């Protein structure tokens, strides 16, 4: 099979072996990493170096630019490698982007808990995104190596995603709105002297010959430890959609880039996405099932069907996956906004009734309420 694929094309970008883009030239990897680093540098030098609160217009333009770059890259993948890999990239990008938006909820809780001044939130977010990019890159190459050498790892990934889906749905039902410090943070506070207040955007200061860490560094540690958990969740999810290391890396990178601008753009909208956890739970559960089916099709575990492949249930195709992901997010968004509007209308009506001692009319009752 590999020989046949190699004979089909002389383009080294198109050769595929063992489920990985092993023949992607180093210059392609180098150019891709260079573009990503350039985009990060633009953020660091052009925006964060001079602390300011971005306007809605600024956030809108930059968010659109980052999404546009990700879409253009997807079109290039489609043109060079074909529709299958193009669809895999877009499915991975949409999934990772939606998970990244969910991560913003945690970032909001962290920054609210530590009372990060609005002026310095850009820096916190960008450093958090950089940490996430580094961690996810490491996880991606570890995951790729495991997939290449351990066929049974798909069972682990699939089971883990189904469990994660359940925790997402349960988290949505609990409506958690407080951030609880983890052990790393508590240990940091206990071991290192810490200032009570922010000192500009500095992370370490010297006072009376003693070095102190500031709340800014504590926030960075909180974001970084949260990023580890996010990486553990997101990497198995995208490997359930594509096993192409290059696509996994680029979909993750482009989903993270622009997240800072997106935060300021949809800051007020985050609270309106009340059903996002349920939607992500459905997506992660779907991908988990997809991984388990793939594991059965490539089964080599001796105590499952004697180590033979199990092909009773057909594998789920890329286009079906993309449709389920986009459809679930669309339904989740529409239902969330409808629920929010209904709740806001109910709150406004209750406030109106309270202001008029219960004599306000319900618009749905044609003004009949309150009449003799």
Query: What portion of residues is helical?
Result: 55-70%
* Overall average pLDDT: 78
Ends apart, CA distance between termini: 83 Å
Radius of gyration: 24 Å
With strands numbered from the N-terminus, the spatial order across the biggest sheet is 1-2
Q: β content, as a range?
A: under 5%
Instruction: Characterize the biggest β-sheet.
Output: 2 strands, antiparallel
The low-pLDDT segments are: 1-22, 365-372
H/E element string? HHHHHHHEEHHHHH
Number of helices: 12
- Number of separate domains: 1
Q: Care to count the β-strands?
A: 2
Structure commentary:
The protein has 372 residues and is mainly α. The chain has one domain (2-353). 67% of the residues lie in helices and 2% in strands. The protein is built from twelve helices and two strands. It has a two-stranded antiparallel sheet with strand order 1-2. A hairpin with a 2-residue loop joins β1 (204-207) and β2. α6 (153-174) packs antiparallel against α11 (276-297). It starts with a helix and ends in a 17-residue tail after the last helix. 33% of the residues are buried. It is a multi-pass membrane protein. Its main location: membrane.
């Amino acid at each position: 099979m590999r020989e046949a694929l190699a004979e089909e094309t002389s383009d080294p970008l198109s050769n595929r072996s063992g489920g990985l883009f092993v023949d992607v030239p180093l210059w392609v990897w180098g150019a891709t990493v260079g573009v990503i680093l350039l985009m990060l540098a633009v953020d660091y030098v052009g925006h964060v170096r001079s602390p300011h609160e971005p306007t809605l217009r600024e956030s809108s333009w930059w968010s659109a630019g980052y999404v546009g770059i990700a879409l253009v890259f997807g079109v290039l993948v489609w043109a060079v490698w074909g529709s299958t890999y193009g669809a895999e990239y877009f499915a991975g990008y949409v999934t990772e982007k939606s998970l990244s938006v969910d991560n913003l909820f945690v970032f909001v809780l962290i920054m609210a808990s530590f009372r990060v001044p609005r002026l310095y939130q850009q820096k916190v977010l960008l450093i958090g995104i950089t940490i996430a990019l580094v961690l996810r890159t490491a996880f991606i190459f570890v995951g790729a190596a495991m997939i290449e050498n351990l066929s049974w790892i798909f069972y682990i990934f699939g089971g883990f995603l189904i469990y994660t889906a359940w925790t997402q749905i349960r988290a949505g039902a609990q409506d958690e709105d407080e951030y609880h410090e983890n052990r790393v943070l508590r240990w940091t506070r206990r071991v290192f002297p810490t200032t009570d207040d922010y000192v500009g955007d500095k992370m370490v200061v010297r006072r009376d010959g003693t070095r102190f860490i500031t709340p800014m560094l504590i926030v960075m540690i909180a974001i970084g430890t949260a990023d580890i958990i996010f990486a553990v969740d997101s990497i198995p999810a995208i490997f359930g959609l594509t096993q192409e290391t290059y696509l996994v890396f680029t979909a993750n990178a482009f989903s993270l880039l622009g997240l800072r601008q997106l935060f300021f753009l949809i800051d007020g909208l985050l609270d309106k996405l009340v059903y996002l956890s349920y939607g992500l739970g459905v997506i992660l559960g779907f991908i988990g099932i997809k991984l388990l089916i793939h594991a059965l099709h490539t089964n080599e575990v001796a105590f499952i069907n004697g180590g033979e492949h199990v092909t009773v249930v057909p594998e789920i195709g890329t286009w079906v996956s993309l449709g389920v992901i986009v459809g679930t997010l669309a339904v989740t968004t529409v239902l969330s906004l409808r629920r929010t509007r209904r709740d806001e209308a109910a709150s406004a009506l209750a406030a109106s009734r309270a202001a008029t001692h219960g004599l306000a009319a319900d618009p749905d009752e044609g003004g009949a309420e309150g009449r003799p």
